[in-house]
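User: Sequence in, structure out. Go.
Assistant: Echoing your sequence, followed by the structure tokens.
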Amino acid sequence: MKPTSKPTNISNAVPESATILAVASSFFYAAPKKCPSSDLRLNLSMVGILTAIILLVLVTTGAVWAQPGKSSVTQSVTIEVKPITRLAVTGNPNPLIINDAVPGSNLSSVSDENTKYSLTTNLDNMKIVASISDRMPGGTKLMVRLSSSKAASTGLVDVSDALSPVDVVTGLSKASDMNQAISYTFAANSDVDEIPTQTRVVTLTLTN
């Protein structure tokens, strides 16, 4: 007795398009060979439809198989680093109010060191400059000092008339400095009359 062979799974053995062609062909050849004229016209119409289906399958399958596969692709990545000059402060100093004096002294002063600054720059030969919005009243001074761990502080700088910027930190190059102290000192001569509350705006700028 001959061993029985297992049937072959057509869908796994041949491409899907070949399966479609086989089904279409079997359907076509299963049509009766002898038939009336009306059946003949119907069969001829079916022949045309099946022929169109076969051609469409062949063209589509050929187009898919003709496309080469790719194992790698390329992308263009554009990069750039622009000049960076960032300066920030923690807020405003407390009001500088002179309400007492040392007997016999010609000058009274008050200071505040409650604010700090931080900076980042990727440039060389940078500095911090300070300017004031309006001149200070006669007989008074406003001075500012910025400490620095990465450059040179110019110490306590008088900005009373600094409508044009003056240097307060110099020699900054590709630096990042965090939480450095800002100190303000307000001084008045002993013969200065009472001065009502006033405000001045001090601008700090990181520049070259």
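User: And one key feature?
Assistant: Residues 7-14, 20-25 have pLDDT under 50 and may be disordered.
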